[in-house]
């Protein structure tokens, strides 16, 4: 896998490369400047010594020495000599770099020049070597840094993968022991500790839900029986209706507790998909238009599939608006209403218990879609939620391929 250009690894490589380049440039400039100053100082000394020697040799031989006319000297050197009587000056050429030494003595102008070509070539060679070895150093340091930064980057990606798995619902995901005592190991330990704490909290919540549902079931059955014995009347109908709602809630909580505990197992068998959907819609007692196209005989658990379809239809009537349409195509069942659509929170995070996404909290307890999603996982199906472009909520159940066709 090619790392993202903006990943931490490449940022480290870039910073190291910039640091090395800055250091090489700084050292190069300082060395170049130091060598240049030393060359100029030595050139001035050599030019002055050459002029002194030429004058001494001329005096010993009874000659005039190295006389020059003012027009032969560079203007800056001539001005310095006129001002101070003696001066040196570096001239870069052409044809070649030279160092002048001039002196005015007895009204006469003496001057010599020293060839600085060798010094110039030495400085140029030094500059080339600094550039070459700086680039060579970068060519070694950058790959080594990239390789060295791969290990912490790999460890960070491992922690990120664990965090993504936990976010996706895999609460058993752990990074595991990480060698070293650096910040990456600390982050890994914190993520695992967070997952352990989250797992404990969820387990406690699931046990509490299951315990409450079980404790309520026995007295609730007695309440249901007692309600059935009440004399007929408007108050009796009201009491019996509320008792049935309470019974359904407890049954839903028990079903969710079994789904959370992983106790549910699929018992697949051949199912006429269109026929089962029609029967499931009919048992809800709610109006829905069912259409079938290229529907298949599928291998799945009919009881769980019936539960999923009925919950989707009930939810469409309870929180949406008619008409409710159920379409069967191939191995896909789509339930659509024409209401305000699913809330953004459900689309982003999936269904959550006791959250209906509507202002009318009394119209539902938010368990229907939660149960439908849980049962879909048990039979290996995918349940997706979306909103239609022209309005309305759309729930799409996609059944997996049959095991025999998948093996083939």
From TrEMBL:
Top EC category: transferase
Cell location: Cell membrane
Keyword Iron-sulfur on entry: no
Transmembrane portions of the chain: 12-31
Keywords linked to the UniProt accession: ATP-binding, Kinase, Membrane, Nucleotide-binding, Phosphoprotein, Transferase, Transmembrane, Transmembrane helix, Two-component regulatory system
InterPro entries tied to this protein: HAMP_dom (IPR003660), HATPase_C_sf (IPR036890), HATPase_dom (IPR003594), His_kinase_dom (IPR005467), HisK_dim/P_dom (IPR003661), HisK_dim/P_sf (IPR036097), Sig_transdc_His_kin-like_C (IPR004358), TCS_sensor_his_kinase (IPR050428)
Chain ranges of the HAMP domain: 153-203
All copies of domain Histidine kinase, residue ranges: 211-403
EC number of this enzyme: 2.7.13.3
Catalytic activity entry: ATP + protein L-histidine = ADP + protein N-phospho-L-histidine
SMART domains: HAMP, HATPase_c, HisKA
CDD domains per the UniProt record, alphabetical: HAMP (cd06225), HisKA (cd00082)
Keyword DNA damage: no
Superkingdom per UniProt: Bacteria
A Gene Ontology molecular function term of the record: ATP binding
Pfam family, one: HATPase_c
Identification of the protein by name: histidine kinase
């Amino acid at each position: 896998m090619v790392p993202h250009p903006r990943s931490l690894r490449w940022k480290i490589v870039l910073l190291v490369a910039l640091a090395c380049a800055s250091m090489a440039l700084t050292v190069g400039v300082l060395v170049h400047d130091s060598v240049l100053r030393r060359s100029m100082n030595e050139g001035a000394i050599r030019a002055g010594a050459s002029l002194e020697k030429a004058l001494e040799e001329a005096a010993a031989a009874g000659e005039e020495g190295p006389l020059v006319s003012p027009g032969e000297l560079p203007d800056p050197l001539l001005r310095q000599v006129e001002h101070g009587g003696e001066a040196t000056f570096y001239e870069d050429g052409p044809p070649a770099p030279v160092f002048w030494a001039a002196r005015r003595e007895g009204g006469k102008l003496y001057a010599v020049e020293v060839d600085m070509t060798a010094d110039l070539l030495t400085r140029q060679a030094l500059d080339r070597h600094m550039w070459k070895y700086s680039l060579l150093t970068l060519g070694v340091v950058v790959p080594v840094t990239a390789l060295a930064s791969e290990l912490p980057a790999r460890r960070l990606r491992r922690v990120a993968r664990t965090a993504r798995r936990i976010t996706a619902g895999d609460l058993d995901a752990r990074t595991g022991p990480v060698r070293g005592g650096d910040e990456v190991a600390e982050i890994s330990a914190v993520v695992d500790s967070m997952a352990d704490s989250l797992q404990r909290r969820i387990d406690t919540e699931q046990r509490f839900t299951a315990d409450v549902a079980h404790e309520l079931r026995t007295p609730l059955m007695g309440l249901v029986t007692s309600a059935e014995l009440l004399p007929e009347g408007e108050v009796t109908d009201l009491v019996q209706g509320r008792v049935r709602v309470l019974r359904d809630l407890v049954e839903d909580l028990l079903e969710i507790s079994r789904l959370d505990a992983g106790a549910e197992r699929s018992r697949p068998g051949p199912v006429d998909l269109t026929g089962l959907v029609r029967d499931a819609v009919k048992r809800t007692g709610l109006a829905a238009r069912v259409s079938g196209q290229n529907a298949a005989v599928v291998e799945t658990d009919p009881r769980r599939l019936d539960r999923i379809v009925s919950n989707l239809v009930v939810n469409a009537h309870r929180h949406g608006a008619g008409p409710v349409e159920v379409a069967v195509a191939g191995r896909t069942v789509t339930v659509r209403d024409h209401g305000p659509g699913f809330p953004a929170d459900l689309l982003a995070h999936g269904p959550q218990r006791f959250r209906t996404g509507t202002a009318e909290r009394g119209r539902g307890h938010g368990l229907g879609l939660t149960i439908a999603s849980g049962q879909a996982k048990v039979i290996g199906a995918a349940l997706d939620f979306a909103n239609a472009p022209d309005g309305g909520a759309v729930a799409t159940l996609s059944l997996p391929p049959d095991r025999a066709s998948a093996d083939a």
